[in-house]
Request: fold
Amino acid sequence: MSEIDDFVDVTVSRRGKEVSQGCYKMPLSIGRGEHNPVRIGHDPQDKTISRTHAVVQRAGQGFRLLDKSSNGTIYRGVRMKQGSSIDLKPKDFFEIFEFTIDVAKSKRDPNAPIIFEAQVLIDGYKTGAPFQVGEMLLLCFKKKTGYIFDQAPVKADLDTILSSHRIEDEHAMAAIVGLQGGGFLATRPIAERPPILVNKQPVQSTKVDLHPRDVIEIENVRIELYPPGESSLKCSNLSCELLNPYTLNANCRFCSFGLIGGVTRAVPPTDKR
Reply:
């Protein structure tokens, strides 16, 4: 699972004018080719900039610059040799011809609230501790062998993350994003993904609002979105099994089945790491 230390904030300037800004997962490639999350020298074409010119990669708790170009990357006035690398400071910069790339380690915001505790179940079995969704969003990847999950900072551009964040060459097919009071599910177009249900209702668009105690289902995967630190009741009606507030004498808010036989769904107090 990705951590905030896997991400870097990047600002690209050209001749002193800002060109782009974003938060990206490392290793981050920079260059002229279309495969680079940070692309420079392509409009207009400048072949002095290599297709993959430089890479910023994680190195322990810090990060490192690797030159992969034919014409060199400039770090503090010195041209790096092809294939050489250098450790970067927490806030640093380097130059590729007329482009200046400012980089900084992404930092966790201790005041950012957790919106959802997202518990993933596969074939009805929990796969581990709930994912914390708030400052970090939750990504879902479909592989031939099943589904895997990863996280990224919300400040990372969602379109970039969905298009360039890969696990074993697979793109993310869906993202769960938390916002104050709720959130949303962002997905690839319907033709590019399996059917997805939210509270048993088919998802027919690429963006759907989410709320605490919503349930997302993708084939044999079930994702339960708990309110942080609160217990919930799963309806015992086998055709429903959706989540409700922890009120024993109430009826299910979806199917009106009595919750006296509901299954308690509880999560421990939020532990922000």
In short: The chain has one helix and 27 strands. Residues 2 and 151 are 5 Å apart (CA to CA).
